[in-house]
Write a structure and sequence with these properties.
The chain is mainly alpha-helical. The chain is 40% helix and 9% strand. It is built from 2 helices and 2 strands; from the N terminus they run H-E-E-H. The longest helix has 19 residues.
């Protein structure tokens, strides 16, 4: 029996239908009628409650490989952390 890791749990029921609808709409908007490997644009949607103390985050994508997403997130975090403190709204 393996212990469930953060992010391995199914989408919380309170978010499931909304996240699936957003994912379907976004995929159609970005990729038109293309399906599977014919799609040109991938995405990840992360949804979390403000103020949550347990670190719970709900995840959905349009079929991207999780290993690729992990790599992309690590690279994106490195970019975020490397940026100087910025102010403004642009």
């Amino acid at each position: 029996m393996s212990k469930e890791r953060l992010g391995d749990a199914p989408i919380e029921n309170s978010y499931r239908e909304k996240m699936q609808a957003i994912a379907q709409t976004l995929d159609e908007f970005l990729n038109g009628e293309a399906k599977g490997s014919d799609r040109k644009t991938g995405f990840v949607l992360l949804v979390f409650p403000f103020g949550a103390q347990d670190g719970r985050c709900n995840y959905i994508s349009n079929g991207a490989d999780r290993r690729d997403i992990v790599t992309m997130m690590k690279e994106q975090i490195a970019r975020f952390e490397g940026q100087p403190e910025m102010k403004g709204r642009a």
